[in-house]
Design a protein that fits this description.
The chain is of the alpha+beta class. It has one domain: Orthogonal Bundle (Cytochrome p450), CATH 1.10.630.10. The chain has 18 helices and twelve strands. Strands 1-2-8-5-3 form a five-stranded mixed β-sheet. Strands 4-12-9 form a three-stranded antiparallel β-sheet. Strand 6 and strand 7 form a beta hairpin. The longest helix has 25 residues. The termini are far apart.
Length: 435
């Protein structure tokens, strides 16, 4: 198994799951033997039914924790504290109140991008989407507290940090005293992230202000008048929230262009909906409920390419999953990328077909056959944000431009903090009305 995992780890895991038909499988990686859990019943048991026995800790979490620290993407008291503070800022109602500010940020960035598009220069769509998402997150969630020149450092640094620990992710038993590929790039990226975030944290703790955005809310909660947990905890919270709010949205949308290129019927219907609902005027957040087909496209997109592609867990006490006994200290791998490709629960699971989500299925789908944002108490806080931010970004982009893919692929899924294409996804942005 090891050569296949090192060559194409994401798709190798998916193939292992399909061969096992959703049964629990043990993967032999030399001295390391995690369990792959993919059946929706088993996933539900781990993420919800007996979730306290399966914690976000152990070898698979160490690479990510070197970026996010003890925060909302961890476990235990740090997670509980962060969740309590941040959850009110990620409700559907609150996120909806930020929509107009997101549109303003998207339109501002697209205006800057227009001269390059008119010149016909190719653009790396992944990088441009990351900058757009970054601009919106800093504007509406961070209250504009990060200067633009500093903000422009965050997206590439975070992308590097999230994609440079692949080797350690699948060889987690190698000590950190032994250098491996990606370590130097990772260290440089984390240093760059801290150079932006730490001064922001220190300033906010000195003067939290009365704003409702995340920086002020965290500073009031973490400062002397709050729980006193201070600078490091707030730094970890902000880095984690940035990853949830900006990096994962941009990464997911990067996969959209190869899919649309391969499915011109979906592309045509998507443009027709944007033309009918939005027209040529700036996007109005009130139009979101009418972008029904776009939502189906996004739902199918994150079925095939969920940003949070793997949710490792460590077993606290001995348990049984689907008749298989797992001992304390064992590692369990849960992957929506794998479960979403099981033939037993999806018709033509490898095909991109937004129609799956345009109408009620004939038989009710298992709750944990589809979980791109996780499940149970650890469900991703960014769920509501994604379904506001992603369609607004897409609507703003498609009303102005028709992105034309320059390289149809194939594209290789690279495992990292979020699953991303190994190859550059380059497009030419044609102003609408041209062919």
């Amino acid at each position: 198994m090891l050569p296949r995992l090192l060559r194409d780890p994401v798709n190798a895991l998916a193939e292992f799951g399909r061969q096992a038909r959703g049964e629990v499988m043990r993967i032999h990686l030399g001295p390391f033997r995690p369990y792959l859990v993919s059946h929706p019943d088993h996933v539900q048991h781990v993420l919800r039914g007996n979730w306290t026995n399966y914690v976000r800790d152990g070898m698979f979490w160490r690479p990510l924790q070197r970026v996010t620290g003890n925060s909302i993407v961890g476990d235990g008291p740090g997670w509980e504290s962060s969740r309590r503070i941040l959850q009110p800022l990620f409700t559907a109602r609150y996120v909806g109140s930020l929509a107009r500010g997101m549109v303003e940020a998207f339109e501002e960035y697209l205006e800057e991008l227009t001269p390059r598009a008119r010149d016909g220069r190719p653009v790396n769509i992944g990088e441009e989407l990351a900058r757009m998402a970054d601009r919106a997150v800093i504007h509406v969630l961070f209250g504009g507290a990060i200067p633009l020149k500093d903000a422009e450092l965050l997206a590439p640094a975070f992308a590097t940090a999230a994609s440079s620990f692949t080797f350690r992710l699948f060889m987690p038993f190698i000590p950190y005293s032994v250098p491996v590929p990606g370590d130097r790039a990772f260290a440089r990226a984390v240093k760059e992230i801290d150079s932006v975030v730490v001064p922001l944290v220190r300033q906010a703790l000195r003067d939290p202000g009365e704003g409702r955005h995340i920086v002020s809310a965290l500073a009031r909660a973490r400062g002397p008048q709050g729980d006193g947990s201070g600078e490091r905890q707030m730094r970890d919270d902000l880095v984690s929230i940035y990853g949830v709010a900006a990096e994962t949205t941009a990464t997911a949308l990067t996969w959209l262009w190869p899919l649309l290129h391969a499915h011109p019927d979906v592309t045509a219907r998507l443009y027709d909906e944007v033309d009918e609902v939005v027209g040529t005027d700036p996007v109005d957040p009130e139009q979101l409920p009418r972008l029904r087909y776009m939502k189906a496209v996004l739902q199918e997109l994150v079925r095939l390419y969920p940003s949070g592609w793997m949710f490792p867990r460590m077993v606290v006490a001995p348990d049984e999953i689907g008749g298989t006994r797992v001992e304390a200290g064992s590692q369990v791998l849960i992957s929506p990328y794998v479960t979403h490709r099981l033939d037993e629960f999806w018709d033509r699971p490898l095909d991109f077909d937004p129609e799956r989500f345009t109408q009620e299925p004939r038989e009710r789908r298992h709750r944990y056959a589809y979980f791109p944002f996780g499940g149970g108490p650890h469900v991703c806080l960014g769920l509501h944000l994604f379904y506001v931010q992603a369609p607004l970004l897409l609507a703003c982009l498609l009303r102005r431009f028709r992105p034309v893919l320059l390289n149809p692929g194939p594209y290789t899924a690279v495992p990292a903090g979020s699953v991303r294409p190994k190859e550059r996804v380059e497009v030419r942005l044609l102003p609408r009305g041209t062919t």
